[in-house]
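Researcher: Quick sanity check before group meeting.
Model: Go ahead. Protein one:
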Amino acid sequence: MKNPVLWVVLIGISIALIQQGLPVRSQGESQSDNKQMDNITIRQGETLFLSCSQGDFVTHTAWLNRSSILYAGEDKWSVDPRVSLVTLSQEEFTIKIEDVDVTDEGQYICAVQTSSRPRTTSVHIIVQVPPKIVNLSRDLVVNEGSNVTLMCLANGKPEPAIVWRMKSPSDDSLSSDSEVLDIPFISRYRAGVYECTAANDIAVDTQTVELTVNYAPSVSDGRDVGVTLGQRGVLQCEADAVPEADFEWYRDDRRIFNGLDGIEIEAAGALSRLTFFNVSEADYGNYTCVAINKLGSANTSFVLYEIIEPTSSTLLQVLEMTSSDLEQTPLQNDLWEGPGAVQDGNSGTSTVFNPFCLLIAILQLLLKF
């Protein structure tokens, strides 16, 4: 067959017949030789090399895919720039396809025309694709007690396995081996970062979703504070809430505002401070802190009370009382000798004020004030 174009067309017809399981006859009614190679598995993005042996007395040769001729000898028929000729010799016919994609998957055939009859070699190409998450739930803000569903969809070949888990804070008890993670009646302790992982034999793809849970404030019990007149006093209120709480302070039923009567109110995140820079008699009493957000409120109470510090006159009175009330302790001469000992000529014993007892008495009287 002298015309190579006509030969390629006939080879294409023959291949179609072969694929349908029909007998193919060439010149001399002899049946063509058909060989099936093992499947070739390649990853998306790699370069595919297709090679077949030529043998002696080859007159024409071609590489074809499912629907078109790629190369006929040295002539390129494909318009795909990724396809090129590598080797064409008496022994080997090799082409390559760069940056392989899933559309390149399928059957390829090397057709060889010898002096006697055509010969075909076919091979099936399998393109593996790394997983890619294509649909993921957005970051969510929900109220405590809501039902939450997180969705993760991924493509890939082989089909990727999908796993959900709570990443931060880590909680192995909250996970799912499917595309959907259901969290019924969610609590504040389930807030955090959730991770979806899609994996197959090729690679792994991961993405995260942040889940915020809103809840009403709760406040720590108030601690009463004692302050001396004229000194600085601070009442501190702490609230746990999402979103963060706003604070209000009250004296009895009257709201207190920042800067009023020498009082400062400052808030920093979960804390609020009520500061008295110069405590007066009028400042002593009961105070209430109220924490508020859009889901509710909570409050706690404090008492600002007076501490009386001992003065110099008070200490003098204590010493006088101690001197008059302190009992003397008799000690034997052999147990106490030294300055301050008074000798009793009749009994032979010494009488002395015990310094340790004096210190204890002073401390006890000070505590009364």
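Researcher: Fine. The other one?
Model: Protein two, sequence then structure:
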Amino acid sequence: MGHKVVVFDISVLRALWETRVKKHKAWQKKEAERLEKSALEKIKEEWNFVAECRRKGIPQAVYCKNGFIDTNVRLLDKIERNALTRQSSLPKDRGKRSSAFVFELSGEHWTELPDSLKEQTHLREWHISNTLIQIIPTYIELFQAMRILDLPRNQISHLPAEIGCLKNLKELNVSFNHLKSIPPELGDCENLDRLDCSGNLELTELPFELSNLKQVTFVDISANKFSSVPICVLRMSNLQWLDISNNNLTDLPQDIDRLEELQSFLLYKNKLTYLPYSMLNLKKLTLLVVSGDHLVELPTALCDSSTPLKFVSLMDNPIDNAQCQDGDEIMESERDRQHFDKEFMKAYIEDLKERESVPSYTTKVSFSLQL
């Protein structure tokens, strides 16, 4: 009995597969058109573009104009080319020289500074963040070349008096730590330009000795427990930016106009019921942000559209913090919320600077996100 041979017509199989391929390509084209018109796809594209820009350190003002994001890839390429051009014009050894004077540390596995740091007194910058370090050692006085102390989001509960020996210190950032006081010796750092003590939650005052800081242009003491503007701040004659938002202020001092150089004043999330008329004497003030929930009286000239002042009244929606947590968990979650709030306001204010005018009031909606 012979073998049976099954004969297939190859042309039929080929036609079948070609038909299926055509149908699949047609479906792919239709799906691509649907996604192109989809708002979700546009949002995803913008999100990825913003994430890429942030990863590359591109300022928001470059790609975001009046709230609209330019996702043109050519824009990103142009920015990168410009950055490369600037880098190529720098001396080749500049990066090596600068890194030799900068100390960086991050990560929750760090509970104290490495012992070898004590020998590196030539350092000009410390950048320490997101660690469990609680104490800044007294040997910091040996770092006479120190220009920048950037110490945000650690567990620091105390600053040593020896910090006053850093005569060349320009910037001090101790935001979102556990500080309850600032050493008066900091007033000896007469070259200090920026001071950020925000988000410590427990600060109630600044020492009067900080009145000696005549070169300071930036002070951020938001998210603490100040009941009034510290006297030393009113004596910082070159101050241009003051953020005292999210505290317990009920009024402003009548001599607030002593801050003649003040340009940006952030007061939102306090308990102010009025703004003093002396505010009108702040001739260089261009941005004023307050919470309008409790305000019943304010100088009408502040809202005059003919002035260069951008007056923003935030109508906050309060968040109920009565949660079933222990004290430490509440404090940490509060710090996280305050940090998110500051990042939100930072982005909002950057956007305001791009606008010709601002709305008469703004409703800031708070979202609870779990990522």
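Researcher: One line on it for the slide.
Model: DSSP finds seven helices and 13 strands in the chain.
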